[in-house]
Amino acid sequence: MAMSEWELIVDREVCLGSGLCVGATKGVFELVDNRSRPTASQCSPDEAVMLAATSCPAGAIRIVEASVGRTIFPDEEG
Ligand code: SF4
């Protein structure tokens, strides 16, 4: 069974505009008005996207399993 698509959410209030996530992924994020945002509403599960989320210095990136609305990162159970 294929993995569920990911929905990406960037909190533009806390994003620092570093552009790390833009550089670490291929066309998944873009800087608009010096803040990151996803370029599409959903993306395929991708190690580079997870790495961008986990290494965002502001903790601004949330990853949600789109089909069930479950947050994959950050881990809310920890
Ligand atoms: S890595 Fe985080 S702080 Fe930097 S641009 Fe992306 S979302 Fe913003």
TrEMBL record:
Keyword list, A-Z: Electron transport, Iron, Iron-sulfur, Metal-binding, Transport
Domain Divergent 4Fe-4S mono-cluster: 8-65
Main function: Ferredoxins are iron-sulfur proteins that transfer electrons in a wide variety of metabolic reactions.
Protein name: Ferredoxin
Source organism of this protein record: Nocardia iowensis
